[in-house]
Amino acid sequence: MAEAPEGTMRRPILVANRLPVTIGVDPDTGQQTLTHSVGGLVTGLRPLHESSGGLWVGYPGAEPDEDVRRQLTEHNLVPVELDPQDYEDYYEGYSNDAIWPLFHYFTEFGSFVPEQFEAYRRVNQRFADVICDLAEPGDAVWVT
User: Fold this and answer.
1) What is the pLDDT of residues 10-51, one digit of tens each?
2) What is the pTM of this model?
3) Which of 17, 34, 27, 42 lies closest to 69, judged by CA?
4) What is the pLDDT of residues 79-103, one digit of tens each?
5) S-S: 54 plus which of 12, 61, 75, 128, CB 3.0-4.6 Å?
6) Burial of residue 9, with CB atoms counted within 10 A of its CB: 0-12 exposed, 13-18 middle, 19 or more buried
7) Residue 18 forms beta bridges with which residues?
8) Which residues, at least 6 apart from 129, have a Cβ–Cβ distance to it below 8 Å?
9) If residue 118 lies in a helix (H) or strand (E), which one and from where to where?
10) Spatial CA neighbour of 79 closest among 25, 143, 15, 10
11) Which long-range contacts (CB under 8 A, 24 or more apart) does 99-106 make?
């Protein structure tokens, strides 16, 4: 890869646990739908994402069908496809049961399950692989 000129930034790559959209299913048609997610992170970063032309990398929550995949691409959203059990062990398990208590001084509430740590490692490696495939010189990768 060529180096980007000093002081330039081609685009931001926002990396979050989840994409700023939720994949659902229309009960009448059975077709997948996309709706904007709510929450502080999405509310805070959506304007940057939409105005910058950058990418948002995250877990889509479900396997996107062809139409939803097209919509994600149109909105510069990059799904990181994960095994659902790995995601559960990584997020609800290791992230919330081990890391969160440690970082918030509630060490007595933390728990360590080796299998959850292995899922955490696999999920982070998958995110890193996706980012490495996307990133170009000058990009600013922002992991939230």
Assistant:
1) 899 999 999 999 999 999 999 999 999 988 899 999 999 999
2) 0.88
3) 34
4) 999 999 999 999 999 999 999 999 9
5) 12
6) exposed
7) 59
8) none
9) helix 114-134
10) 15
11) none
